[in-house]
Design brief:
The protein contains 5 helices and 7 strands; from the N terminus they run αβαββββαββαα. By secondary structure, it is an alpha+beta fold. The protein has 2 domains: about 40 residues; about 110 residues, Alpha-Beta Plaits (2-Layer Sandwich). The longest helix has 30 residues. Bound molecules: iron/sulfur cluster (2 copies).
């Protein structure tokens, strides 16, 4: 058995390195030969555009519920979860108590299309679509306002209506029902 400082040990290691390198080269040559015999798979974009799966994550939209109302309730969950902070909005409230976003903005120049906003949204308002052809030479024009984002359909889920579950309409005043506590003022932290 060779000693630790035995020069034969160095020779054995060198031979192993040469053998591995030769095997790697041979593997590479075989891959080239294999690909030479295959049909080319280059797709001539933009002449040819592949249909992408429905769940592809690209341009973002804001959808509407089956009643045609805006689904977004300005809960800020999407902007809170966004890892690059590219969503901003303001919250408003209609006379019937339904919340909405008076303005809603996404900076597509920063968006990394991770889909976390869509995952977080409780109303299915914000959705990523397979549409990816919206690059602009001027990065400042990649900021989309609500009018650019809001569509007139329900996106991937046409049937879901958040307000059918959460509800804004009540019979009688809040807190006036049997065993119901009076409503708290959500806009105050005072006890
Ligand atoms: S897809 Fe990701 S990066 Fe883009 S807006 Fe949604 S959470 Fe932010
Ligand atoms: S898009 Fe969804 S998560 Fe974002 S503020 Fe509107 S309701 Fe909330």
């Amino acid at each position: 058995m060779p000693e630790v400082n035995d020069p034969r040990r160095g020779r054995v290691n060198s031979l192993q390195v040469v053998a591995r390198a030769t095997a790697g080269l041979w593997h590479g040559f075989m891959m080239v030969l294999w690909h030479l015999g295959r049909r080319p798979i280059t797709e001539q974009y933009p002449e040819y555009k592949r249909s992408l799966p429905e769940r592809t994550r690209a341009r973002i939209i804001l959808t509407r519920d089956p009643d045609g109302e805006e689904r977004c309730v300005a809960c800020f969950l999407c902007s809170g979860v966004c890892p690059v902070s590219c969503i901003s909005m303001a919250a408003g409230e209609r006379e019937d108590g339904r919340r909405f976003a008076p303005w809603f903005r996404i900076n597509f120049a920063r968006c990394i299309y991770c889909g976390l906003c869509e995952e977080a949204c409780p109303t299915l308002a914000i959705q990523l679509t397979p549409f990816y052809e919206f690059c602009e030479p001027d990065i400042l024009t990649m900021v989309a306002e609500k009018k650019d984002l809001l569509v007139d359909h329900g996106g991937k889920n046409h049937d879901y209506n958040f307000y059918r579950f959460a509800g804004v309409a009540m019979v009688g005043d809040k807190g006036a029902h049997v065993d119901e506590a009076a409503p708290v003022d959500l806009k105050s932290n005072l006890p």
